[in-house]
Amino acid sequence: MGNTVLVVEDNEINRSLLVMILEETYHVLEAGNGREALEILKDPKNTISAVITDLIMPEMDGYQFLEVYSSSPQFVNIPVIVSTSQSDSESEVKCLEYGAWDFIKKPYNAEIIRFRVKNVIERSELYVLRKLRYQEQFDTLTGIYIQNMFVQQTKKLLRENPDTDFMILHFDISQFQVYNSVFGRREGDKLLCHIADLLRKLEEYEKKITYCRVEADAFCICMPAADSEFIQKMMDEFQKNFRSYQRDYNILANVGVFYIEDRTVSIPAMIDHAKLASKECKGSYIKNYHIYTDQMGKSIEEAQSIVSEMERAMKEEQFVLYLQPKYGLANYRLAGAEVLVRWITPEKGMVSPGKFIPVFEKNGQIMKLDYYIWEHSCKLIRSWLDRGLEPFPISVNISRVSLYNPRIVEEIHELTLKYDIPAKLFQLELTESAYTDNPESIKKAMRQLQEYGHTILMDDFGSGYSSLNVLKDISVDVLKLDMKFMAASGSENQKKSESIVANVIRLAKDLELPVIAEGVEEKEQVEFLSSVGCEYVQGYYFAKPMPVAEYNKLAFKV
Ligand code: C2E
Ligand code: CA
Ligand code: CA
Predict the structure, then answer these.
(1) For residue range 166-204, what is the model confidence (pLDDT) as tens digits?
(2) pTM reported for the whole predicted model
(3) Cα–ligand 1 centroid distance for 544 (angstroms)
(4) Ligand 1 atom 24: the closest Cα is on which residue?
(5) How far apart are CA 13 and CA 47, in angstroms?
(6) β-strands 4-8, 27-31: how paired?
(7) Strand 166-173 to strand 253-260: parallel, antiparallel, or no bridges (unpaired)?
(8) How far, in Å, is the centroid of ligand 1 from the Cα of 331?
(9) Radius of gyration of the chain (CA)
(10) Long-range contacts (CB closer than 8 Å, 24 or more residues apart) made by 340-346
């Protein structure tokens, strides 16, 4: 017995009659009123194929039931038949308005009822089938192809045009989530539909074309290959259109281009290549399209080899601590150091953190590496103490990914206990953006670490958007102001950025936060920083990151 029919009727005689009529063909469930019926419908155990409902019932009558039913998306495919003794067209219209699929009249005629139930079930199945078939091919929001269909259609296009060169464009909207949060999801959806319309328009000019929505805000086009000038023109047209579509927001597309030269490459791989190229744009207003080069593919391979070599590298202690000294600006005296990881491999020599940290952040391995560095830093402090030295504090970096570790506070605290080192010697650097990601839990974690005696430094201050806002309500002890975010000296914007730095330092003083300027490379920067009362400095001008042995000489003259 396949289908289940739900009979909603308060009159027991009528109900048993209906059950009798249907029992032969269906599994039948019974409800005495609309409320009970909804409970049965909502119960995930039940898969109802059709509902027959009376109109006049206690508690929740048929109209109220239909009203709830018609506004519940999960019920739209379940047909409802209204059973009525009234034959006025007014109540019938009302039922139809609420989405009733059919009517049966009392007194019951068994044969008619069986037919009507059978019909509505078949109709609904057909409807669901059609919808499923549609969803297999088209994106429900925009109505254009989904990726699977795009792949098929692109294959066909290539096959039918063996002499035409093609390219694949992949593009997405820069910071689409920001657009969504500024204007709301509904507007975001509207923008996506607008883009789909633009793609449809392309078809008026170019017949050899396919396109699809790949996912979220990402779209793909396959069309005859064109030179950069043409692509640039096309992008300019898009940008112009976006500007008139939304005057209050700078909608920007990141575009990646893959020229199809080798047709044996699979289409999904071509899409991936185009997507990879689009990542090069990084939301730039200057160049918002990039063409795929094999070098881009190489960096992916490089990333993969980094991933697979990590475990072994850690066992073999290939990750090495370097220390970059920090100085007090008033007296140029050493005040501590930042721990910076270096990966020294037998094959490749020194690999810079700029290469592997982003890879480890993406796959989560950074948590392990962070812990490794913290532990080795604690060991280093222990070794200084064991030698009877009086070390300055050292600071380690905490990746924003590590902040998702719910045990982070315990892990750090346990390390200081294990190596028996004072928490004040072990400082923690956290980037500004980490605070904006997940403010509540991070604030709490930082507060606890401060209670254990750690100093918290806010790294890369000035790189984010919300800097000044963030400052009001978080627990940090020191601000690190990165000079690389300032305009170069001699440049047009130098005065502006100097005034920003001066103001940030003044504000920090109001909040009683010491400031350390990092990335200080030039004498003029040092002079300017002293003139505005910056307390500490770190940078190539004073010292580069160095191996521990070299730092020992500098700090302890040993
Ligand atoms: P960061 O925390 O902002 O570290 C400062 C970076 O600036 C270091 O780069 C340092 O060598 C560099 N630097 C210092 N002085 C100057 C200067 O005067 N001019 C210039 N141009 N650069 C200067 P490095 O060592 O390549 O590290 C890059 C980033 O990698 C770090 O940025 C940090 O975010 C991350 N990193 C490094 N070590 C670790 C680590 O152990 N754990 C985690 N999670 N991240 C780390
Ligand atoms: Ca840092
Ligand atoms: Ca920094």
Answers:
(1) 999 999 998 898 898 889 999 999 999 999 999 999 999
(2) 0.59
(3) 10
(4) 353
(5) 25
(6) parallel
(7) antiparallel
(8) 24
(9) 34
(10) 340/397, 340/545, 341/369, 341/373, 342/545, 343/313, 343/318, 343/319, 344/318, 344/320, 345/309, 345/313, 345/318
